Every structure is written in structure tokens, then in C-alpha cells.
# Entry
Amino acid sequence: MEWRGRLGPFVTFFGKRRDATMMYPLIKYMLASYTRSYRYFAPIAFILISTLFIYSYRPNPVMDSYAVTSAILFIGSAWLGLNFLNHDQGRQAMLLIIHAGSAKRYYCAQYLTINLITVALYFFALVYPILTGMFDRPVTGNDLLLGFLGHALLALLGVTLSLFFQFGWIENQGRAAGMLLIVMICSLAGQSVVNKLPVALEFVPYLLPPVSVMINMMIHNEGSLTLTVILTCVYCLLYSVALLVIYMTLSIRKDAAALIRKVG
# Structure
């Protein structure tokens, strides 16, 4: 019995495999619903056309180019996430939560679905210039790893930011889109903002999403995995995870309160 106690966390984790299995039909339904709305076209077209434009001439520096396409992916992923979350204006949310069996499972499926769409986009941004010979030198394994981390983490960050600006949180979508745009611009300009602030306020830009920190790391790195690179990637990942935990906690409480009001 002692070994069961020690392996308790692992048993609990793998015991939740049923939750993951039950999310597959939910993810499939969400993908089908989104593709029928055609709202995916604009953000995906923005990412693809911008990437093709960046590589419309050759040769290009490897990490500088990956830094630019990572920034494009951040903007496009936030736009894609906002479109995905708003494509049905939340009309089916409660029905899907009941069908999923829990609000947590529904929100996880929603988040996974958006990120699954972005996977194909950042693999395109990574592989396309290599296949077409657009770089000024051969791409090393470290280049690919750093490029992958930059694209994946900034896409994840863009999607996570969009969660807080959807219709369920801000009903005026014109205002929500404007606020998201301001956050994205400030995030992209974070490093330059630091130089213009008084010393006492230099910490403020670091509270913003670490987009400029990631881009700056990629631009000033030539494929070497230093401690600074690892810490920057971990910081960006933890920032997204922290935002997701806050979103999940507040959303589940909000839905519980809404159901209580309806029953009461």
C-alpha cells in the first residue's frame, strides 16, 4: 500500500486520461464550427501573406527573419484566437459546457483547439524559407530549435492574451479589439519603452507580455543555447501559463455564478 501512496500523483494524472479522450469530439466540433464561419480566413491570410512577403527576396539572415515571423505569428495568433472565441458570440457555451461535463474541460478544449490551428502556421513559418533556400547560410539544429521556441511561445502567448478580450468578457467587441491592439503594440515595443521611463519605473514594461524580450533574444542570438536564452523561453512560457490559470479560475467562477443566478 505504501507504493500506491507514493505513486498517488501519477495515478491521479493518468486517471484523468478519460478527460482527454472526452475532449476529442469537443475539439472536432469546435474546429468544424469555426471553419464553417469562415472567420479564420483573415488572420490566417495575414500570417501567410506576411511570411511570404518577408521572404520575397533572398538572402535573409536566419535568426533575424525568424524573429520577424515570430512577431507576425504573435499578432496573427491573437487575432485568430479572438475570432475563434467570438465566432458564435458565446451562444452555445453553456450547452457545450453541459455536454462536456465540466466548464474546465470545455475551456481546455477551446484553448487546445486554437493552439492546434497555430501549430500548422508556425511550422510553415519555420520550414518554408528552408525549403525555398531563402537564408544566407545553412540552418543549424540550434537555429531550428530557437526558431521553433520563438514561434511556438509567441503564438501561445498571442492565443492566451486573446482569452481576456472575447465577447464573454468584453461585450463591446470594437473596444475589446482596440484594447488588445494596444496591449500587443506595447508588448512589441517593451524594450524601447524601458529606455524612456524613469529608473523607478523601469520594471513596468516587464509586467507586459514578454514579446519584445523574446524577439530581442532571437535577433541578438546566432544559434547558441545560452542561459539567457533558456531563461527567456521559460519566462515567456510561465507568463502564458500564469495568464491561462487566471483565465480558467475566473471563467469557471463566472460560469458557476451565472448558473446559480439562473437557478435562483
User: Anything to note?
Assistant: Residues 1-15, 259-264 have pLDDT under 50 and may be disordered.
